């Protein structure tokens, strides 16, 4: 599978390493070259410096052939913008985005973007721990 990941923070780098180990073709984008230090030392994918809301950068990342686009930056607004570009301009079949503000979940669903909120997930985990 061809996967483009925007955001090489802790989670984005971890996802890239896991998926690349499963023989997927991975390109990971970040606006800060220093972020790529988080990638595994044996990472064989492509690390590309650039902004994931820039269509030219996305084209260099191979978005036109991507099966999946994953938006993993720290910013909800950048994530939704890049996800919309991937979904509606480049017609990427599957678009997944992290959102910190759980109130935005419905908006993302309306836009056809699979979204998850670590805020909600963590709160549910803590609640479940308190029950046990």
Write a brief structural summary.
By secondary structure, the chain is α/β, with parallel strands linked by helices.
Could you walk me through the main structural features you see in this protein, from its secondary elements to its overall organization?
This protein has 132 residues and is of the alpha/beta class. The protein has a single domain, classed as NAD(P)-binding Rossmann-like Domain (Rossmann fold, 3-Layer(aba) Sandwich), CATH 3.40.50. Helices cover 39% and strands 20% of the residues. A six-stranded parallel beta sheet has the order 3-2-1-4-5-6, sandwiched between helices. The longest helix has 14 residues. The termini are far apart. The protein is globular and about 45 Å long. The model has no long low-confidence stretch (mean pLDDT 94).
